[in-house]
Amino acid sequence: MTTIGYSGKDVARGKGAARSRPGGLWYPYLLIAPTMITLVVVSLIPFLYVLYLSLHDVRYGQVRDLAWFANYATLLSDPRFWNSMWVATVFVLIAVPVEFMLGLVGALILNRGVRFRRIVVPFLFIPTMMAPIVVGLLWKIMLAGSWGLISYNLLERFGLFTDASIFASPNAALYALILVDIWQWTPFMMLAFFAGLQSLPVNPYRAAAVDGADPVQTFFRLTLPMLSPLLAVVGLLRLIDAFKVFDTIFLLTGGGPGTSTESPSIFAYKLVFEYWKVGEASALAVLVWLSFFVFCSVFYHVARKRLNAF
Amino acid sequence: MRRPCDVRGNILWAPNPLIVALGVALPWLWPATSQAWSYKEAAAPYAGQSITVLDEVTPLQETMQKLVPQFEEQTSIEVDYQLLNHFEVINRGQADLLSGRGEYDAIMVHSPQMGLLLDAGVLRPIDDLIANAELTSPDLDLDDLIQPSWDTVAKYQDETYGFLTWAYNTVYWARGDLLSHPDEQAAFKAKYGYDLAPAETLQQMRDIAEFFTRKKGDKLAGETLESDFYGILLEGIKGGTTWWTVWNSFVRNWGGDIFDENGSPSVDRPENVAAIEFWGDLWQFGPPGMAEASLIDVPTLMGQGVTAQALAWSDFGLGIDRDGASPYAGKFVYAPSPANADYDGPRSAEVEPSILIIAGSSDAPEATYLFLQWLADRSTQLALAEQLGAGVPNRYSLFEAPAYKGSRFAPLYAAMRGSLEYGEAKPRVPQIYQINDALAGLVQQVGLGQLSAEEAMRQGQQEVLSICDRCTLGE
């Protein structure tokens, strides 16, 4: 736990105070009980049900015999599953770092003082505020083959994509989706980092100025370490969210051309709603969760030790 | 016959011959007049019941929604007639049927869905209801429903599951102003040796596509083009109805199919390869964005004058070929889906007959049946056409009705009738959507030039075999 600004005495004072709190030791648990019950009902129970479905033969939505790990075996031997994981991995590995860097740069610029910041910031945040379907339709119009705003007025004039549209080219389609994600979520990162920068204490900066530190040194020796817990948390949340991407892919490519943009979410959607393979779809959900559980555990451990996060 | 007489032989009473005749005839006439079938009387035992119906939202159903109160008035059966888009009506409808939740009494079902739903056993046959004289109008005239659409979508193993309500079909659609332009006609005749006209064969369609594919700056019907113009537009998006159209408008017109007589995958046949090659070759005459063109984009772009011809779902023509909807309204020509000039076998066209089925979980099957009958009834369909000013006939007799024959859409209706003559519903394959997904992706790559037709069909065979080795439900 981050204890910047608090001494050990303060923490001890907090511990000692618990014994004299009304309700005793059970009081904190009582206070968080409604939240925990809600989490159990809306998160844990559905997850356990998905786990249950993944271990059974589910035919046309009807749960039949126990199948143990047959659904997992089918999925793990399906090239389409591995393709979807690869698509999501490429998506995350490109989109999230770019959003991170652009968001951090933007936040630093905003933090230095921008004129009319109170007007500029809400405008910058518009892409993040837009409903996913609006984002999808907007970019479908902008990048539509032969008549899209960008594809016709910009790209074709320079002789790019004259034979096939962006969304019809397997590589270009995935990069276009990554571009859309960067466009939509960079403002979120920017705003989160900006809020973090605004909350940093000024005294260290004053001391650094007195010691003659230049801006680069200040950034790497002061800003980045103090901001690192926030960067870690926001980066992790964005990574998880990007891996689960569904709406823009569904609207723009449907997972095509072929399966070049078929993320695990899109694949799971098809398994359930088009093929009625609920057992396999549940197994896919569990495998994705498991992957993230392992990743987040490692990330948590590293971030806690190296970045003082969490 | 001796008339009754008194003792003196005077005739006491002589029956009037007219009264006698009437007396003999009346028992025969009386049942006809007092027992004439009506929805009101048929629905009497079910008056006050409520049913929920799920249908697809298109202008046809939106107009039908306005007529539903007439049924409610006649029968006192309350109908909650809900409309959802194509994908939602499939997803939600199937989820309701397969879960047995029973939110809907009747659900619109497209022919590809029938395999899965029949395999799951969630549909209620209506043969007993059809046979019930109290519930079925003697004027229903089931022979009038368009064939083979009705038989292939609604019947399985001697059981019937619904009436043909919506007979969706694809037609050939072209710019009549271009085809009839004297300069274009002369140039076409000089190049190809026959008259320029709406294509009757796929080969003619290809020639027209090649002829009208022009670059910015070229002439088109005497005008200089300000942007590229394309000879044909086909649906090319993965999913949608791309594969259905390729399968039924091309593959089967080459004598091919993706299942053999035993229902096993047979994707990599030479006929299939030849058909896919032909279809893929057409892409060079289409716009760059054809791989993203959905069944909605095709008529939309056709209406915007991007291309000379298309294969499109005919009901869209009713919406696009109107003043205010397209600058080329009134200039389109229509024809049945073209045949293959090099194939003498049975002709095929892509159609999508759709029925409303009664859910197995429905607790008001009789009331629901009356509503489905009313939907498919000739008078209701005529009222629909009159209200909308257009329609997609589900009965042969409707094509002769003034609302259709005298309509400005008469050429389109004639084209519909031609396509419907050769179109069949999809086979009963529970995994058909998964197969559609696989093959649509492969043929899209053929169109984009990323895969040869032969390789695509070879991969298709592998993929379909991995889905099922005996795909069709047994008859």
Defining traits:
heterodimer, A: mainly alpha, two-stranded antiparallel ribbon, disordered N terminus, B: 475 residues, alpha+beta, eight-stranded mixed β-sheet
Q: Which chains have the largest interface?
A: A-B, 29 and 31 residues
In one word, what is the shape of chain B? Answer: globular
Alpha carbon gyration radius of chain B: 27 Å
Structural class of chain B: alpha+beta
Shape of chain A: flat
Low-confidence stretches of chain A: 1-6
Ends of chain B: how far apart? Answer: 65 Å
- As a whole number of angstroms, the C-alpha radius of gyration of chain A is 24 Å
What percent of the residues of chain A sit in helical stretches (DSSP H or I)?
over 70%
Q: Determine the number of helices of chain A (DSSP H or I, runs of at least 4 residues).
A: 14
What's the β-strand tally of chain B? Answer: 12
What is the count of helical runs of chain B? 20
Percent of residues in beta strands of chain A: under 5%
Helix/strand-derived category of chain A reads mainly alpha
Question: In percent, how much strand structure appears in the residues of chain B?
Answer: 5-15%
Average pLDDT, all residues of chain A: 87
Specify the biggest β-sheet of chain B. Answer: 8 strands, mixed
Q: Reading side by side through the largest sheet of chain A, how are the strands ordered?
A: 1-2
Helix content of chain B: 40-55%
